[in-house]
Amino acid sequence: xxxxxxxxxxxxxHPTGQTLTQERPTGIILRPVLNTGYSNGGASAExxxxxxxxxxxxxxxxxxxxxxxILRNRSADMAINxxxxxxxxxxxxxxxxxxxxxxxxxPDYRLLGMSPEEAAEWRxxxxxxxxxxAQSVECDLYRKHNFYDMQDIAFIxxxxxxxxxxxxxxxxxxxxxxxxxxxxxxxASRVCNPNTYSLIGAxxxxxxxxxxxxxxxxxxxxxxxxxxxxxxxVADRVPYxxxxxxxxxxxxxxAFGRKTGAPNILQISHEERPEQYRGVPILAPAIEELKQxxxxxxxxxxxxxxxxxxxxxxxxxxxxxGLPNALPEAFGENEKVAFDQYTFxxxxxxxxxxxxxxxxxxxxxxxSLSTFEAFVNALIAQVGAALEIPSEVLLSxxxxxxxxxxGALLQFQAVAKKRRIWFARDFCQPVYERWLAExxxxxxxxxxxxxSDPLLRKAWSRASWYGPTxxxxxxxxxxxxxxxxxxxxxxxxxxxxxEITGTEYEENIAQLQAEHKxxxxxxxxxxLHQNVKTEEGGENDGxx
Length: 544
Known about the structure:
Blueprint (H helix, E strand, L loop, with lengths): L59 H4 L4 H14 L1 H14 L5 E4 L3 H4 L3 H19 L12 H14 L2 E8 L10 E6 L10 E2 L2 E2 L4 E3 L6 E3 L2 E3 L5 E7 L14 E5 L10 E5 L17 H22 L3 E4 L7 H9 L19 E4 L17 H16 L3 H5 L6 H40 L12 H8 L1 E4 L8 H13 L5 H8 L4 H17 L23
Parallel strand pairs: 12-13
Antiparallel strand pairs: 1-14, 2-3, 2-11, 4-5, 6-7, 7-8, 8-9, 9-10
Helix pairs in contact: 2-3, 7-9
């Protein structure tokens, strides 16, 4: 038996039970609602500045993938031929990876049932084993670079091309290196849709289908019906390479191993949209400004050079006795010059003879450069803002106060740290985990439960990655700040050593101990910090 529904009055009721009605005030004419909210601002269709402004935000496939080739080409050109573009790329590489991110193994010793001393010993041994592999060219499939050099190449590719790619392969161990894990870096343009390139370039097919399973392939990335990445399509050479005339062949590489679930290919990128599968070059928002700024700087440089030239034009009435004959009479045989009647050059001290009937009309070379620096600096500030690089850092020019300079460095250091975390997450840590799996499998590192329990494997695989230091504008102030952070438990000696000097805390302690003994062995007192208590005195002993 169905329940009887109680009819409700659709009119709003006051808590007292009195029905409320809205009456039209007398003397007021109701008009349609116009220009409310964004409709009177960014969404306005009436304002003069907005009438012709109708951009369309479409899918990542339309917004990104369709334009990826030209963005990648222009970004590479700006990174090579634009001083400001090259400066931006170099600032990122210097502050993010530097000479390479160094791992600090930090297993979860509490979960693993280890003592701090056992964990410290395991860390030292693991790091030594990793450097045996990472500091050798045997980690590179091409046997050209060690792991830290490969980081530099991968990072540059990721920000210039939008993403970088690395394949993890295994080859026979050679020499004194016992590991078979190899890393292969390859160009981002090699990851592309199969059969979409000809001898003249791309055919602009952003999406194709895998004929065997019906999966979509978007710019070389194969996805299933859920949108999950299942494979990558890699060409055997860079497309549209004018030095190659052989046909392109594609290989389908599954994204993850069927048994291990570990990644076979690493994509180093940072996407900004939910359904985006390829990265965008970091210079993309500033390409137009960079190109126009380069053209403007080149034009001003050319104008300044022309203005600096002092060129003489000679007009002769007698064609038979021109400049080549007149100069030796005046200055001697050594003053003869080559003469082309219809060739004129501008240059420092250049002398040109005009044929009979020609006259020189002066060109106004007055050009004021008073606004050049201010205008270019304003453009550089805009470019830096788009790239999250303060103009002081971008130009490596610190002309303001200590506080302003340090603020700029700290701001960019935060950006560099963010990208360092991304890069370590996408490249360094996956490589470390693949190497560690092999090291445990061949018995060179002991890690009980590594292959039997995923939680234990994660606990053994934890590592921190430290990169280049920011540098110190005022070492005294910054060391004091670091000491306070350690004293109050906000940081550790290991972290401060890595971030301030880029050194290992434990190695510093061991080296200081050895140096202390050396001083004592030579009858000298090792210099101590003035606030350290000694047997001879208390705190601040000897301080005036």
